[in-house]
Amino acid sequence: MIPFNKPYLTGAETKYIEDAVSTGKISGNGKYTKKCHEFFEETYGFKKVLLTTSCTDALEMCAILANIEPGDEVIMPSFTFVSTALAFIRQGAKVVFTDSYHDNPNIDAGKIEELITSKTKVIVPVHYAGVSCDMDKIMALAETYNLLVIEDAAQAIDSFYINYKGEKKALGSIGHMAAFSFHETKNIISGEGGMLAINDERFINRSEIIWEKGTNRAEFFRGEVNKYGWVDTGSSFLPSEIIAAFLWAQIENLGKIQSKRKAIWEQYYVGLKQKNHKNIKLPQVTDYATNNAHMFYIIAENIAHRTKIINNLKEHKFIAVFHYISLHSSPYYLNKHDGRVLENADMFTSNLIRLPFYYELSDENISKIINLIR
After folding, report:
1. pLDDT (tens digit, 9 = 90+) per residue, 120-161?
2. Which tens digits make up the pLDDT trace of 223-242?
3. Residue 154: C-alpha distances to residues 11, 83, 223, 314 (Å)
4. Rounded-to-integer distance, Cα 312 and Cα 302, Å
5. Domains present along the chain, CATH in parentheses
6. 337 and which of 100, 134, 163, 328 could share a cystine (Cβ 3.0–4.6 Å)?
7. Cβ atoms within 10 A of the Cβ of 33, count?
8. Is 0.90 surpassed by the pTM of this model?
């Protein structure tokens, strides 16, 4: 079988893991953690970076840092992974879902303002497939209504937004905070693992306290523990040095990995466009976004058509998969969603197909997949 995903190893991972172990400090925040932090801060302009055990944990740190409390409202797309909502629900927030664009799974920025109330505290744009949301519109709303913007950039490493001035800004560097994933399905990986990026200096000091089990020893010994200075999270968001060492090997090869992934994405796009498949739609990259080649998806006509395509590929030994189930339609939200119809989110739930996509996928197999989709 040709899998949907296959983790790419550079060959240096075990070498760096062995080196990390030899230092005698493997619990985290050692040599390789610091190298990763410096790379991301210097390359993408994040003011502060902290590696985390997962993107979910990074989002939970964002929710804690934003001081989310019961009754606060958080606006986000319905077509997203469950962790996007869960991080805020755990703090007691009410999640308010927004629809996607008709041709793009990202949050429809034009539908956000009507959902803002006096209880709204945060907007969470999710950069689906590593393609940017309309950040100028979202940041303008945040400024007007004094809201925080937390970017769910799980899929968006090495991807950029081009603002109205023509300036190119890394995704995750625009909002107040952002969360990234290094899960094995992402462009660069550490098996599991994630990263918190902070762009607002108000949150930097407290983030380091939360990162390490909520311990603020300096304030404790001064007898100055305040409401938000010492947060007992009950767990550490800090990953082991072994995870950081693995990630460093991937970072060293980021350019090579990205070049290959972009070539695969382009081969899919050109091949499918040339076939002139009138009954499927191809992914759209807006003028204000770059493409980091996180995935390649197509949009079928309906769920029956999607099932037919997936089954046909499987019969020929290719694994293609659908993606999220709209959160507003999940059992948990049946009695919590306000009843608005989110037709585009539901359409992507039923019709979107992710094609096999990984570094070692051959040109021959890509061509076979393109032909089989007919």
Report:
1. 999 999 999 999 999 999 999 999 999 999 999 999 999 999
2. 444 454 444 444 579 999 99
3. 24, 10, 38, 28
4. 16
5. 13-252 (3.40.640.10), 254-372 (3.90.1150.10)
6. 328
7. 24
8. yes
